[in-house]
Design brief:
Chain lengths: 122, 143
């Protein structure tokens, strides 16, 4: 989580695309669409399974994070996902499953998601 | 883009692991290896379906997501035997809400709340136990 947060912090500085944990915080009593930025990223922990054990102790694990990118500008999908992938791969993550998140007519956002794994010794 | 794009994975596949290990034993027991494995997979599919539907029920609005969850009985491609539980998004575009539930929509307080992946992950022991029980019934020494 800390490493993903660090990657997204740097990414935010270089691209201006803000991020939030799990979901963009909104006021449920106000219309949603105006509260959301045109482009934003969310991330969360999907799972965190042990990978190796010795003497009854887990010696390594591999957290899996989902990174989601939302944009109102279609053409962003041609560039930003690749930039996100590059940032995470450069930080030592490996790429996992990818897919799209359906267009949301109520907010005007297109969506993309990819899982990233981070192998770590205990 | 250098990656696959445009897919919404909302299905889980159940397979039979270590097929070769069982082959000789099953055949020695006089049963058809393929049929035994298909039966084992088919016996486990309802476990996944029940869990997946229960997960979708947590956010039922129209019932489109729950109703779109379908089980496809075991099929065979060479030595690969598999059954599928999930939503075919081409067949059921009305169930798009399921994608938001599984992967999030970026803003809803209740999402993501995955129901597809956990249907397998959270029931792994029961799935394997069920498959093993069927194989044992078919005369396959499991251990």
């Amino acid at each position: 989580m800390d490493t993903a947060e660090a990657v997204l912090t740097v990414f935010q500085k270089s691209t201006g695309i803000q991020y939030d944990f799990e979901r963009w915080e909104t006021d449920p009593n106000q219309p949603i669409a105006p509260q959301l930025p045109d482009r934003f990223i969310t991330y969360f922990l999907v799972d965190d399974e042990g990978k190796a054990w010795a003497d009854g102790q887990e010696t390594s694990h591999e957290p899996r994070m989902q990174i989601s990118f939302y944009t109102r500008k279609k053409s962003d999908m041609l560039t930003v996902p690749d930039e996100i992938e590059q940032a995470f791969v450069n930080a030592g993550f490996t790429r996992g499953p990818v897919g799209h998140i359906p267009y949301q007519p109520d907010t005007g956002h297109y969506g993309w998601r990819r899982d990233f794994y981070f192998y770590e010794r205990r | 883009m250098g990656h696959k794009y445009g897919r919404s994975a909302l299905s889980a596949t159940i397979t039979m692991p270590n097929l070769d290990k069982y082959l000789e034993k099953i055949q020695a027991a006089g049963n058809n290896v393929d049929d035994a494995c298909k039966d084992a997979v088919n016996a486990a599919l309802p476990i996944v379906e029940k869990s997946m539907k229960a997960g979708a029920e947590r956010h039922r609005k129209t019932g489109d997501v729950v109703n779109a969850i379908e089980t496809v009985p075991a099929k065979q491609e060479g030595d690969y035997i598999y059954g599928t539980v999930g939503i075919d998004m081409k067949k059921h575009p009305e169930a798009a809400e399921g994608v938001f539930q599984e992967y999030g929509d970026g803003h809803s307080p209740c999402f993501p709340d995955p129901f597809v992946r956990p249907a397998v992950d959270d029931n792994r022991k029961e799935i394997l136990a069920t498959e093993r029980a069927v194989l044992k019934k078919k005369g396959v020494p499991i251990d």
